Amino acid sequence: MTAQSAKEVEQARIDSLGPDFGPLFHHIETDLYSLRTLWRIYVSFFGTSKERVELLNKSSGLTAFVLEKTLFESALMALCRMTDPPSGQGGKYTNTTIRRFSSFLTDHAAKESLENLITDAVEAVRFARSWRDKKIAHSDYDVRVKQATLDHASQRKVSDAIDAIAAVVRWVGHECLNTDLVTHPIHRRSNDEVQFIKHIFLGQLKENELEERHRFLIKSGDYEKAQQLSTFPDWVTYRPPVRTDG
Q: In a 3-state reduction of DSSP, which class is residue 88?
């Protein structure tokens, strides 16, 4: 069996769901797969063990902080996008959201169960919308000066919200496509993020080894070899030029 291309998958959805609902559903599926991948990486890095967090922080505390913040906020934004109202700015824009699904299934016998699942998903994402509206996409002044607070956010809430959206997608698969959709992407290299962690771990071991060797060479007076240990290719050490105002 050969894997279908993205275009073939989209065409299959159009054939089954029609020219309007088919592309929308395909895009939501794609967004859900992307979000699950992003969230798996986040949890692997920052939600698995304190040792992994310490490893990342030891490598670069600032980079680890930016990576954690970026992945988490990206997940919240994705949740909001997929559960946004059907249109924005008074109908000027049409959104890619699960809240449009029921409009394509007005005559479906089980439409009410779909709408209940959509309502559950929107409610599950409510905390993320607080973050999006007051911190990520906008900057609420009362929040900035600590006169107001955001809804509590946690890894569990994000995971539950993703699953709530997946329940809507799976409903369409069962009721409209006569199939049990898998909403977790199948990765050919399912341990990709673990490989990333392993490379950092091994790199730190090697760095410790080189530092010990460097100290030995300095103590032995072999300064040339010591210098060679500290020499790296330019592409490794390159940083963009520092810019200043004025």
A: strand
